[in-house]
Amino acid sequence: xxxxxxxxxxxxxxxxxxxxxxxxxxxxxxxxxxxxxxxxxxxxxxxxxxxxxxxxxxxxxxxxxxxxxxxxxxxxxxxxxxxxxxxxxxxxxxxxxxxxxxxxxxxxxxxxxxxxxxxxxxxxxxxxxxxxxxxxxxxxxxxxxxxxxxxxxxxxxxxxxxxxxxxxxxxxxxxxxxxxxxxxxxxxxxxxxxxxxxxxxxxxxxxxxxxxxxxxxxxx
Amino acid sequence: xxxxxxxxxxxxxxxxxxxxxxxxxxxxxxxxxxxxxxxxxxxxxxxxxxxxxxxxxxxxxxxxxxxxxxxxxxxxxxxxxxxxxxxxxxxxxxxxxxxxxxxxxxxxxxxxxxxxxxxxxxxxxxxxxxxxxxxxxxxxxxxxxxxxxxxxxxxxxxxxxxxxxxxxxxxxxxxxxxxxxxxxxxxxxxxxxxxxxxxxxxxxxxxxxxxxxxxxxxxx
Amino acid sequence: xxxxxxxxxxxxxxxxxxxxxxxxxxxxxxxxxxxxxxxxxxxxxxxxxxxxxxxxxxxxxxxxxxxxxxxxxxxxxxxxxxxxxxxxxxxxxxxxxxxxxxxxxxxxxxxxxxxxxxxxxxxxxxxxxxxxxxxxxxxxxxxxxxxxxxxxxxxxxxxxxxxxxxxxxxxxxxxxxxxxxxxxxxxxxxxxxxxxxxxxxxxxxxxxxxxxxxxxxxxx
Amino acid sequence: xxxxxxxxxxxxxxxxxxxxxxxxxxxxxxxxxxxxxxxxxxxxxxxxxxxxxxxxxxxxxxxxxxxxxxxxxxxxxxxxxxxxxxxxxxxxxxxxxxxxxxxxxxxxxxxxxxxxxxxxxxxxxxxxxxxxxxxxxxxxxxxxxxxxxxxxxxxxxxxxxxxxxxxxxxxxxxxxxxxxxxxxxxxxxxxxxxxxxxxxxxxxxxxxxxxxxxxxxxxx
Lengths: 220, 220, 220, 220
Known about the structure:
Four copies of one chain form a homotetramer.
Chain A lengths: L5 H12 L1 H15 L5 E6 L6 H4 L7 E6 L15 H12 L4 E7 L3 H11 L6 H6 L4 H9 L8 H17 L3 H8 L4 E7 L6 E4 L6 E3 L10
Parallel strand pairs in A: 1-2, 1-3, 3-4
Antiparallel strand pairs in A: 4-5, 5-6
């Protein structure tokens, strides 16, 4: 007897009856021609921030990495298995995506663990503790050159983490080259779980601004 | 001027007008009480296989890792940043999820790269090449103890990768303990892009069987 | 008192009375001029597959390595004592052999141990377990690009091991050079213990075909 | 077109017509019940000293390692692939052989290379040079406590190598235990290519004595 979660199979049944009917040709085309997404999103594992839902996209549109706290490690040419870097390489060199979006969110548990860990190292698990060390340079930048108001350090760290991941992306030679050649654009975004407010980082000011179809200054 | 992809912002606009209306209370509850997903899904970055879509779930239901080829590395108590292991630790020790689903899919580019790499090492990128080495034990198991028909080696390797990730999950002491204590169940699933057929691994035979709300033997 | 096995000394007595009489001049010539074998055979330690018997050759014809599972390691320019590589170097650079035959066989205990080990690591002994890890790339190739029918995984792995050893031979610079210059040919062969059937690998299809003096397509 | 050496296939044809006819039942029995050799022989790759010929044995009788200069490395519990140690482990722990014969021979090229190398290091190939370093303790023993007459240093070194390999065998815990328990006996032997004279090491005097079915003191 299969013990697969029943509600997932029921949800799958609903997808067959509705989503798949809508996307049937898309599915068939994607199976025949393969995927050609133009956007890579690096977001958090958090169950509340699935990028496909927030951006209302169907199959084939977003190439998605999800890891704890939507982090990009810096380029590192060593042996070892770098999952996020492998996905980035696949997206940029293989799929030639035109955009990479680092998508953070409010109440991020990974960011929260990092902040608590700074006070009491190793209260977090061993793997989590090591992974979120990737936020250290973000914290240092934030302490040295604060961009955001300091009244919400959790939010400020979420923003700082997004900025750091954008910086780290540029340490990959093939990304730096693609960005220079205007073949690739990098973006920061942040999503509020409670209000569903989306904010996008202004690349010049590095500040996060409310975004939406009607927000001012959005690219046509 | 923000140059954020316009179609994503338009999609976000649609979400605000429809999905968010539907899930408004869920969003607010999730913001106040935090996330309590019961299921973790480890699936591929591939743009065609977003688990939230396939299982028709809303915010708060799935804690999702997405990496190339939906791989779980074996437990390894070394320094270094293990993104997938960190997410697993967060889900099992922090969120106490009740299910982990390894969700593979057809035409997986990561699996394909691994198979091509076996032929001509290093044709794939450096990060991809190293990451998909995680499939090596899967290939060895598959060669030594074939479970699937050999007429589709790509499919057989996709299945073998899922089985290997399930094995690797059990190398984490806290997972082994949770599974022993019946607090956690591990599942394998596979999705066909073209037909949207879902197959679930039978834990006894280790074979993948067509699944759905009406398929026989599904747990009530 | 010598306790040397009596039946071996009796067999030696028979050799003196028969084989040596036949090969006396050969022995003397080989003692005076040294050995000049044209063929190196790398076969298994298995007591059932002595290459001199199968090919009915007398003294001086085959330079023979016998190790568990007839394996050739890849070229590796590190310190350490590589017995098989030393023998290969001796044969190719010293004796200038014209052919190297990798000679596998059915029911190979080393291959069997590797297949069982994939299931339950370390059930085999420590030295055996490490030695047969040399079969790992063979298993990976076999899983990624199956050449043989999967209905006999033991046989398929025996074949895959022979193919891998042939590949590994070409990683030795002096072999690659000799093969390029047509001074050396590499061959795969497989022997069935029960029926004494000999199969030879077709270098183009990489498949093993029944061989013999009357088999089609044998080089004159 | 197969380019397998024609004379080997012709020899195989002779084997089918003669040897296999003689050993047909043996082959079938060995295929059904597996091998159960009572003797392991570690001899040289040299084309002139195939142990099956010298001892007139058929299939299934000798488990044979053949490496350059019939060397046994000392027991070494490190990672790495020790081919000869793996074969010894297979024979003693797996097959439970009752005898191990280290079988040296005259005009051994490996011993000769070691002796030349002592004068002009690295004249020999890199793999050979490292492999025959295993003879160093033999040379030291021989220099410090000469057992044999010094008028033939090549022969004396051949003998010393056999003695050293016998010593090295006893460094394997499972061999030491089997020898203590009288489950296993170790023997040294040496074969002269030109005259086919066989000499066996007297375990007490450590000297090599002419052996044969009629030689005095042979175990009944």
